[in-house]
Amino acid sequence: MIESPLSAPPGAPPSGGPEDTAVLPVSPRAGRLLVLVAVFISAACGLVYELELVALASYLIGDSVTQASVVLSVMVFAMGIGSLLAKHLRCRAAAAFGAVEAALALVGGCSALALYAGFVWGAGTRVLLVAFSLAIGVLIGAEVPLLMTLIQRIRRQDAGGAVADLFAADYVGALVGGLAFPFLLLPLLGQLTGALLTGAVNAIAGGALVLWLFRHDLSARTRRRLLAANLAVLVLLATLAAGVGDFERAARRTMYGADVRVALRTDVREIVLTGGEESTPGSFGLYLDGRLRAGGRDAHRYHEALVHPAMRGPHARVLILGGGDGLAAREVLRHPGVDRVDVVVRDAELVDLARTDPALSALNAHAYDNPRLHVVHGDAFQWLREPRTGGASRPYDVVIADLPEPGGTESAKLYSQEFFGLATRALAPGGRLAVHAGAAGRPRVFWTVEAGVRAAGLRTAPYRVGGRREQPGTGRERAPRDWAFLLASRTPPRLGLDARPARRSLTPKMLRDGARAIERTRVPGLPPSTLVHPRYAEAATPVG
């Protein structure tokens, strides 16, 4: 029979009970301080694990409100279970706490890596999210009862005072962990390495507290087993951290193909370029947050369908919201009579790539070298709200919303009634607004966008345009693309195309057919999405 690391030698009296006084290598006052430091570190690590799961699940699955709700509710429930289970371990509090911290360091440290691997290789991301939330929650819930027992073994005090001390250290640690994640771990180390480092800190803190401060509570065999367990966890975490780069490259090859050329994570998104440095048709791919943004033989049709119907009419001044890849600007600049194009984009790194990468800059026809194009780095919503001066003080003939797809909480603000109201305010009399409103296969999302545009005081002309979805570089058709758009203005807009420019594959017949096709999917009576009632998460179920 294999002895548990929590068990005492045969015939030994139980130790570590709440009535015993611990034998410490330091004074009781210093011992209590060290326990509170361990509480502080454990709380910080626990909150980092929680935020890692929320952030990664939001990136991989989308809809951050849903993912945060799932993680938080499951973890709080599991913490209650862990607290109940810890009642049975209080007689061996030191050994139990050491085992819990080693397990928490292993599970929490590896959680982000396992979740990402499940997403890439199809192991059920949602199931893994719930499983890790449960496991981490149970282990975090077991910490406080065990730490309460340990601190009472150093010096007996009233329960209220002990609870106040523990919770104070716990809450301060949670504050530090909550701030360290977005401002330190995420920007400097990334999600995978950040979680692994947090696990290592967790293992070191828990192991040091038990194996040094409470070493007299442990049998020699238990000390050896806990030491071996903590060393094994640290070696595993260090090995995984050393291999994170290779793991990410393998994951990208699985997701994007073998010809990944550029991969970077900015403050806004993940950007991946595939294919050669020359923009051979069908070989190039631009992925933003894992979604193909440009690539395949029909990729140009999206930007043609977004831009050209809105350019029919006066178009001296054009505003593009989003569109950092420069592809919408390419289509705008093909029209004669354009005097100024303002591009408002959050991601400066994407703009730099679009300006300097040989393939992407060739694809956007070197739009960023055109003196008529002006870039503003910032959030489109905030920029529309603020009083503008200089070249941007006058209204625009055309406003083009080339933004991330609606359907989740991240982009809900940019498809709200308030946002469309601000965009309407930026329009000149007779100006037009063009909006990419998602996929035609998600009619509730599309018609919710349309309701928001109408609620802002504009009349709409809906249409859809299709193409082929290909894996860049293979030429293999994977699934049909089906983009849905809105052309809007203060008077009923006329859907059509200017006779110029000639370099486009979009035809008036495609627009007429697309308008009839999208009208057949109309969902009547949908309310608009607003800032205080975002409706895209509830409307995001695809049909067909």
From TrEMBL:
Residues 1-21 are annotated as: Disordered. GO terms for molecular function: spermidine synthase activity. S-methyl-5'-thioadenosine binds at R269, D379, A380. Residues 7-16 have a biased composition (Pro residues). The active site is at D402 (proton acceptor). Its main location: membrane. Residues 243-490 form the PABS domain. Its EC number is 2.5.1.16. InterPro entries: MFS_trans_sf, PABS, PABS_CS, SAM-dependent_MTases_sf, Spermi_synthase. It catalyses: S-adenosyl 3-(methylsulfanyl)propylamine + putrescine = S-methyl-5'-thioadenosine + spermidine + H(+). Pathway: Amine and polyamine biosynthesis; spermidine biosynthesis; spermidine from putrescine: step 1/1. The chain crosses the membrane at residues 33-61, 67-86, 93-121, 127-151, 163-186, 192-214, 226-245. It is found in: Cell membrane. Spermidine binds at H303, D325. Keywords: Cell membrane, Membrane, Polyamine biosynthesis, Spermidine biosynthesis, Transferase, Transmembrane, Transmembrane helix. It is a multi-pass membrane protein. Homodimer or homotetramer. Belongs to the spermidine/spermine synthase family. Catalyzes the irreversible transfer of a propylamine group from the amino donor S-adenosylmethioninamine (decarboxy-AdoMet) to putrescine (1,4-diaminobutane) to yield spermidine. This is Polyamine aminopropyltransferase. It comes from Streptomyces luteolus. The lineage of its organism: Bacteria, Bacillati, Actinomycetota, Actinomycetes, Kitasatosporales. The gene is speE.
